[in-house]
Write a structure and sequence with these properties.
Blueprint lengths: L47 H10 L4 H8 L4 H14 L5 H7 L5 H14 L4 H10 L5 H14 L2 H13 L2 H10 L6 H11 L7 H13 L6 H8 L6 H14 L5 H7 L5 H17 L11 H8 L5 H10 L7 H13 L2 H15 L4 H8 L4 H9 L6 H11 L5 H9 L4 H6 L1 H7 L5 H12 L6 H13 L7 H12 L4 H11 L4 H13 L18 H11 L4 E8 L2 E7 L5 H12 L10 E3 L3 E4 L27 E4 L11 E4 L12 E6 L3 H5 L6 E11 L1
Antiparallel strand pairs: 1-2, 1-8, 2-7, 3-4, 4-6, 5-6, 5-7
Helix pairs in contact: 1-3, 1-31, 3-4, 3-5, 4-5, 4-6, 5-7, 6-7, 6-8, 7-8, 7-9, 8-9, 9-11, 10-11, 11-13, 12-13, 13-15, 14-15, 15-17, 17-19, 18-19, 19-21, 21-23, 23-26, 25-26, 26-27, 26-28, 27-28, 27-29, 28-29, 28-30, 29-30
């Protein structure tokens, strides 16, 4: 399955981003009647191993969870609150609302966080969280704000804006940061009131306000964001986010301020401005906007930097300077005789800058022995005239390497591209690789034609009958159905996915039926996963109590990263990672994704971004924040992790509570910053020593 930690530029926190604006307020379907029961018979308080089993199976055992929620230990009640969120069954919402009023701060904090990962936006859930915004404990209030952000309803937004009006100064930052998921006039107005505060004592508040405005920017905030980018008192990470926002808005007027900020000595700002410039030039390519005078020479210089986070974005920007002699020579040299990711980026830049005149270079790249260079050519064929591109796609679609066939389909960027190459797409539905089949489904989904829905349904049914039945095609089919949710044929696709042999697929379909197609939840019971052995859960529970924490050494071609694992926060995830490392699963594997300034991602033996160990593990979402050097599990949707993992290259708070954190890089992060896409892991070794 395609697994990502978010998009490289303009990411919203997941491969299937939430809607661009809050949905109109609706009352969620009532929880099934089984959640409204009389007092249960007495049940023994659950052990940690039992809670791990329920989380792992995604099993809602009401008697056990009620017993834990009524336990005498605050630690147990807090743990049960987290389990309710992780299990993800809406029948747990009333218990969470009760725990949100617990006398223990620890329990209220856990209930606040768990309400967000449960994601059930009932009026009572919103009300409980709104009350917690004024909790005496600042951490409980902050997690309540985070969860109101995660719910993404107008009522949740209004609760945040209302609380902000009377919040004391030390509570404002958490409320403001939570507004980032609401790109609405009301949220923008609330954040703008604090975005220009020059008081040095209010820097955290100002940074949070700018974060809210920049994460999903609106045109009305462009002036504020531009001013913040040029303000030296704004911290580097916030300034970088403002640059990114200007790139997303894509206005030609941003080119000047962005180019000026590219001279900033702070690496996050410089990198973000280079990426943002490319985004603006891409979006405004038909208006004649160009790089400033003298930019080509500077970019040629930067493209030779030893730091890939500088060199790679600079090479990409030279696409818009390809008419410059020195820029052309630099790109041609790297594209024809370079290696790795830099060669791939230079090839794409030349194809974009030269168009039809790049055909000879494209043909030479298609004949390369390097499948990843062939894949780059395949993905970038849209820069050629349609007839030239389609003729080459036909050849590349028959390439023996999966990555080339995959990128050929992903290079169909527009509905006309898909329509012209419909035969190629339909043939890919029978490819031997599930990832290629899934890419074909994603291509068909671009067509605003309900006639493709039966084709997608047939592909889903065919993949479900395969042995084994992989989830890739079904996941894309569900996404395609949601994009056509007004058509009755779309619901038929998701109904078929609900019956898929994969528990993962069935659960994703059930989530879609209830949340997107407004189905009665009682008509679609949650399927649960088969349990592991009792011994495995006991061992995982025991690992949480280990005082010395396990560490692993990730040996790369650029140096060794040392990672401290976090079994207390994610015991089953850590056990899975250690088991894979001990059997040499990661050794020699290509680092298939480096998003400059964002993440380094590994764990796919195929190098395509689709590979994994042949099974999925459940998310263990926790409150550890995504700071620089945080290690998380990559996903293609809830509970789709397996072997792909990533290291953040900067603070990424929009990932908090969305991807499982299971480790932290300790020591030198410069090594992570030197890694280039296509480098290989030498080995991942479990160190004999442990960290306190």
């Amino acid at each position: 399955m395609v697994v990502a930690a978010g998009l490289a530029f303009g990411c919203t926190g997941g491969p299937h981003p939430p809607p661009n604006r809050p949905a109109a307020e609706t009352t969620p379907p009532p929880a099934p009647a089984s959640s409204r029961v009389s007092e249960p018979t007495r049940t023994a308080e659950p052990t940690e191993a039992r809670l791990l089993e329920l989380e792992d199976r995604r099993a809602f055992d009401e008697a056990v969870l009620r017993a834990g929620a009524a336990g005498t230990s605050a630690e147990l009640r807090a743990r049960v609150a987290l389990a309710l969120g992780r299990i993800g069954d809406e029948r747990g919402a009333p218990l969470l609302s009760r725990l949100a009023t617990d006398s223990s701060v620890e329990v209220r904090r856990s209930a606040a966080f768990a309400s967000g990962i449960l994601g059930y936006p009932s009026p009572s859930a919103v009300g409980s969280l709104a009350t917690l915004l004024s909790d005496p404990d600042a951490s409980a209030a902050a997690w309540a704000a985070w969860s109101l952000s995660a719910l993404e309803t107008l009522a949740a937004q209004d609760a945040l804006v209302s609380a902000l009006r009377s919040a004391p100064p030390d509570r404002r930052a958490g409320l403001l940061r939570a507004l980032w998921r609401y790109p609405t006039p009301a949220a923008a107005a609330a954040a703008s009131a604090f975005a220009a505060d020059a008081d040095p004592n209010a820097r955290a508040t100002r940074s949070a306000a700018l974060y809210a405005l920049a994460r999903r920017p609106q045109e009305s905030s462009r002036a504020v964001l531009t001013a913040a980018l040029g303000d030296a008192s704004v911290d580097a990470d916030t300034a970088a986010l403002c640059a990114r926002a200007l790139g997303l808005l894509g206005k030609a007027e941003a080119v000047g301020p962005l180019w000026s900020a590219a001279a900033d000595a702070r690496p996050p700002v410089r990198l973000a401005t280079l990426l943002a410039l490319a985004a603006v030039l891409e979006k405004d390519s038909n208006s004649g906007v160009a790089l400033p005078a003298g930019a080509a020479a500077r970019l040629v210089e930067l493209s030779g930097d030893t730091n890939p986070n500088v060199a790679v974005p600079s090479l990409a920007l030279l696409r818009w300077a390809a008419a410059d002699r020195d820029a052309f020579r630099r790109l041609w040299s790297v594209a024809s005789s370079g290696r790795g990711r830099r060669q791939q980026v230079a090839l794409t830049a030349l194809m974009g800058g030269l168009g039809e005149r790049s055909k000879d270079l494209v043909d030479a790249s298609m004949a390369s022995a390097d499948p990843f260079l062939r894949a780059t050519a395949a993905e970038s064929l849209s820069f050629l005239p349609a007839a030239d591109a389609d003729a080459r796609r036909t050849r590349l679609a028959a390439d023996p390497e999966v990555v080339v066939r995959l990128r050929t389909l992903e290079g169909l960027r527009t509905p006309p591209d898909v329509a012209r190459n419909r035969g190629l797409v339909d043939a890919a539905l029978s490819d031997s690789d599930f990832g290629v089949q899934a890419a074909a489904v994603a291509a068909l989904a671009q067509l605003e034609d309900p006639a493709v829905l039966p084709v997608i349904r047939d592909a889903l049914v065919k993949s479900a009958a395969a042995k084994p039945a992989g989830p890739d095609v079904a996941i894309e089919a569900i996404a395609a159905a949601e994009a056509h949710s007004d058509d009755p044929g779309a619901r038929e696709i998701v109904e078929a996915a609900y019956k898929h042999p994969s528990v993962l697929v069935s659960r994703l379909a059930r989530r879609s039926l209830v949340r997107k197609f407004h189905a009665d939840p009682s008509a679609y019971p949650w399927r649960t996963y088969d349990p592991k052995s009792a011994e495995e859960y006991e061992q995982a529970a025991a690992s949480e109590r280990d005082s010395p924490l396990p560490i692993v050494r990730v040996e790369t071609e650029r140096g060794t990263l040392v990672i401290r694992l976090l079994p207390r926060e994610a015991p089953l995830t850590v056990r899975n990672f250690l088991a894979l490392a001990r059997r040499g699963y990661f050794d020699g594997v290509r680092i298939h994704r480096v998003a400059p300034g964002f993440v380094v991602q590994d764990g796919d033996p195929t190098g395509t971004g689709n590979g994994g160990p042949g099974y999925e593990i459940r998310d263990e979402l926790n409150t550890v924040p995504y700071e620089t050097g945080t290690v998380g599990m990559a996903l293609a949707g809830p509970d789709t992790g397996g072997s792909q993992w990533f290291v953040t290259l900067a603070p990424e708070p929009h990932l908090d509570g969305v991807y499982t954190v299971f480790g932290k890089v300790i020591g030198d992060m410069e090594i992570a910053g030197r890694i280039e896409q296509g480098d290989r892991i030498v080995r991942v070794a479990v160190a004999p020593e442990r960290m306190p």
